[in-house]
Automatic annotation (TrEMBL):
InterPro entries: EIF3A, eIF3a_PCI_TPR-like, PCI_dom. Residues 160-357 form the PCI domain. Its main location: cytoplasm. GO terms for cellular component: eukaryotic translation initiation factor 3 complex. This is Eukaryotic translation initiation factor 3 large subunit. Gene3D superfamilies: 1.25.40.860, UVR domain. SMART domains: PINT. Residues 427-460, 685-852 are annotated as: Disordered. The keyword Cytoplasm applies. It is found in: Cytoplasm. It comes from Physcomitrium patens.
Length: 852
């Protein structure tokens, strides 16, 4: 059994070495042809292989990683994977390879060789620089520097100086503030876990209870560099730059002092010797970060000297950037509590100093609130001013005050509505925000539940697959055992095994099946060796008997070949002689025809030359004709294009003239319309003036007639309304509704009395003349008044419907008041419009008269 296990273990080692060598070849293939996708897949396969090795530790044929040979093979594979990943610039795969190497070291509790660790830290410097993790980049350089200084005896002084300069510049390139300042607890916990993970990768052991930011920090690394004497190995330019940025105080010209040192850094870069794991040191990659550090130092030192500085002066101090980039640096510095400052673009200054604390704002909160409330009260209720009483205000001022108050009330109503709308909008926004928060929380809950269900399903699926694999392996082991028993013919033992199948474990079945296979293989090898030995004996005896026969046959074959060669040579010589004689005879026969051949040749050449010249002339003539035709076609096209352009210009000119004529016609019509409307307005204005004069004249005549009649009979009763009018009042009461019953004119009387030109129609004029001539004076309209005391005076007539009269008819009668009215008819409650250019009509309407 021990020999069986040793042979199985040796076989596993050979397979393991073959797989890893094949992995190296696959890495080189991916690097040569830039096959990034296949490289990622290969890395994932190797990673899963290592995970499975850790998972199934109870397997007998599992490689033992604690052995130096196995560990060395796996580490070499991972380092080769790391190199290829960095050369392909697959930085995520490179970092995963770093984690795989660290996991191997942590698993076996053993540190690899210094050469491998040097490559490990060299690749870490590249990975951390690409990921902008400048702090970890500096620590990786520091670890690489210490490792090379301690173990690499072939390292030159120049290499040591360049590496020390890289360590110092990488440390200076780290931002001088904590980017997690003011972060939430969750972010700080995540950053703490990340720092612990990075520290373990770099080889630092950090206590979980302590803050990793205190252990891995820029200040701690700088102090360690000074304490370990790294500054003694750096170049003078880097040392002076470190002293200028970290120890000296030059707020006004710090950037100007640092600029020469930064310009010298590219010249200090150089290649390292072959003994170093880093082929080249490029110091110019740290220049942008050092420029940012210089700008931050300028802001820090200026904030200690000044309280206010102009933006132009600050930009002049920082010679590397314009103010837009300086402003971004200011925002980051203030955000992470590096400096305290404010930028006032209105005044173009930068104010330095601490920000107002929240407690200081709370102190003056009530005072500010009281002042603002007082100001609001003074605006709402201004101080009282001595005003005259409302009773003494004239009517126009009173109307203005009422209008002003009305506008205030309307404005207040609008303001209230606006505030209500604003409050509703705010409530709607709050509801929308609450709804979005609720939906977000619900979505997060659903995602968490889906992840949990997915994990649970994956776990169940994994358990099912593992169970199926175990059952399958157990079944295969039973099958192998049964086949082995059949071959041996041990029926009784097989029955006993079937009866105790529940007591046999998977490991026992596998060991038994494997031992049977190994025994069969060994038996087969013995049989093959015996068969090979027998066949060797037979082959040797056969060849010993064949040897003289083969030699005799070879000698006979040589003699036959020699005779055949001589015969062939003689035949070839005879054929050559015969051919020569035949050729000489043919030559003598053809010499007599040479002159004729020359003559015929000259004739053919002359004929073909003439034919060639004729064809050439025809070609020239055809080309000349084609040129002429193309010239004519080109001339025709040009003329057509010219005529087309002329026609387009003519049509465009005609179109423009037509549009100009239309515009002039529209303008002329507009002017004529305006003139016509102006004339009509002038006629209407004159008509209104004549009507107003006639109304005033008729009013005076009527009042004089009334006064004359009252003065003739003073003993008669006079109504109070008439007495008031006689005393000078011009306001008469409206008649009662009974007197207004029959004031509406008939349909015949509603027709207009004037035509469009302003003259009265002939029909209405004749009707009015006949009516005036036939009606006696006593039946004309009289103002309403009370019953007279004198019996001789006739009683007043009842109210008659209004009679339409023209101004020509009114001119003949002066004792009747007919207020003018425009149009055919208008409701008593409306002012009514007048026809354009028409004559103004009048009605005997007491209500119109009372209103006027």
């Amino acid at each position: 059994m021990g020999n069986l296990q040793n042979s199985s273990r040796n076989l596993t080692k050979q397979l393991q070495a073959g797989v890893l060598v094949l992995s190296h070849r696959a890495f080189q293939f991916c690097l040569q042809y830039k096959r990034t996708t296949e490289f990622r897949r290969l890395c994932e396969i190797l990673r899963n292989h290592l995970i499975n090795l850790n998972k199934y530790r109870d397997q007998r044929d599992r490689p033992d990683l604690t052995q130096p040979e196995s560990l060395q093979l796996y580490l070499e594979t991972r380092f080769e994977q790391l190199k290829v990943a960095t050369e392909l610039e697959l930085w995520q795969e490179a970092f995963r390879s770093i984690e795989d190497i660290h996991g191997l070291m942590f698993m076996v509790k053993r540190t690899p060789k210094p050469q491998m660790m040097a490559v490990y830290y060299a690749k870490l410097t590249q990975i951390y620089w690409v990921s902008d993790s400048h702090l970890y980049h500096a620590y990786a350089w520091y670890k690489l520097y210490n490792l090379q200084k301690s173990y690499n005896k072939n390292l030159t002084a120049k290499d040591l100086q360049l590496m020390a300069s890289s360590v110092v510049l990488a440390t200076l390139a780290v931002a001088p503030y904590d980017r997690k300042y003011g972060a939430h607890h969750f972010e700080l916990e995540m950053e703490k876990d990340r720092n612990i993970r990075m520290a373990n990768i770099l080889g630092f052991n950090i206590d979980v209870k302590k803050d990793s930011r205190e252990v891995l920090s820029r200040a701690a690394l700088l102090s360690e560099l000074v304490a370990k004497g790294v500054m003694t190995y750096v170049s003078p330019e880097v040392k002076d730059l470190y002293t200028l940025l970290e120890n000296e105080f030059h707020p006004l010209d710090l950037a100007a002092r640092a600029e020469p040192f930064l310009s010298k850094l590219p010249n200090l870069s150089d290649k390292l010797s072959s003994a170093s794991p880093v082929p080249e040191v490029r110091l110019e990659q740290y220049v942008p970060a050092l420029e940012r550090l210089t700008a931050l130092r300028v802001l820090q030192q200026v904030s200690q000297v000044y309280s206010t500085i102009k933006i132009a002066d600050l930009t002049r101090m920082v010679t590397f950037f314009d103010f837009s980039k300086v402003e971004k640096l200011i925002v980051e510095a203030v955000k992470y509590n590096f400096v305290q400052m404010k930028v006032d673009h209105l005044k173009e200054v930068v104010n330095f100093g601490s920000q107002d604390l929240e407690s200081e704002k709370v102190k003056t909160h009530l005072t500010v609130l009281a002042k603002r409330l007082k100001k609001a009260c003074s605006m709402i209720f201004p101080p009282s001013i001595e005003r005259p009483s409302k009773q003494t205000l004239p009517y126009p001022e009173l109307l203005a005050v009422v209008e002003k108050e009305h506008k205030k009330l309307l404005a207040r109503k609008v303001l209230i509505e606006r505030r209500k709308e604003e409050q509703e909008r705010q409530m709607l926004e709050m509801e929308r925000e609450e709804e979005s928060k609720r939906l977000k929380q619900q979505r997060l809950t659903e995602e968490a539940e889906a992840k949990r269900l997915a994990k649970e399903s994956a776990r169940r699926e994994e358990a099912r697959i593992r169970k199926e694999i175990e059952d399958k392996e157990l079944e295969e082991a039973r099958t192998l055992l049964a086949e082995a028993e059949k071959r041996k013919g041990k029926k009784g033992k097989k029955a006993a095994a079937d009866g105790e199948v529940t007591k046999i474990t998977k490991q026992l079945l596998l060991e038994e099946a494997l031992s049977e296979q190994i025994k069969e293989r060994q038996e087969m090898e013995r049989k093959l060796q015996k068969l090979a030995k027998t066949m060797d004996y037979l082959e040797r005896a056969k060849r010993e008997e064949e040897r003289p026969l083969i030699e005799e046959a070879y000698r006979n074959r040589l003699q036959d070949d020699e005779r055949f060669y001589k015969q062939q040579q003689e035949q070839a010589i005879e054929q050559s002689k015969n051919q020569h004689e035949t050729d000489v005879v043919e030559k003598h026969r053809l010499l007599r025809m040479a002159d004729d051949k020359d003559v015929f040749q000259r004739q053919v050449v002359a004929r073909r030359q003439g034919e060639f010249e004729r064809l050439q002339r025809l070609r020239e003539e055809r080309l000349a004709e084609e040129r002429a035709i193309r010239s004519q076609e080109r001339e025709i096209r040009r003329k057509k294009e010219f005529f087309r352009r002329q026609e387009e210009q003519r049509l465009l000119r005609i179109q423009e003239e037509e549009e100009a004529r239309k515009r002039e016609e529209i303008e002329r019509k507009r002017r004529e319309e305006a003139e016509r409307l102006a004339k009509l307005e002038e006629i209407a204005q004159k008509q209104r003036e004549r009507e107003a004069a006639a109304e005033e004249r008729e009013k005076r005549e009527r009042e004089e007639a009334l006064r004359a009649r009252l003065e003739e009979k003073p003993g008669k009763f006079v109504l109070p309304s008439l007495r008031k009018r006689l005393e000078g009042g011009d306001d008469m009461r409206r008649p009662n509704m009974d007197d207004r019953r029959d004031v509406r004119p008939s349909m015949e009387e509603r027709r207009p009395l004037f035509d469009v030109q302003g003259s009265a129609t002939s029909r209405e004029t004749d009707m009015q003349v006949e009516r005036e001539a036939s009606s006696p004076p006593s039946k004309r309209y009289q103002p309403p008044r009370g019953r007279q005391v004198d019996s001789e005076a006739p009683p007043p007539r009842a109210y008659e419907p209004p009679v339409r009269r023209t101004h020509d008819a009114l001119a003949a009668r002066k004792d009747v008041y007919d207020p003018p009215r425009a149009g055919a008819y208008a409701h008593p409650g409306r002012s009514g419009g007048r026809p354009l250019g028409g004559g103004r009509l009048v009605e005997e309407r007491p209500e119109r008269r009372d209103r006027w």
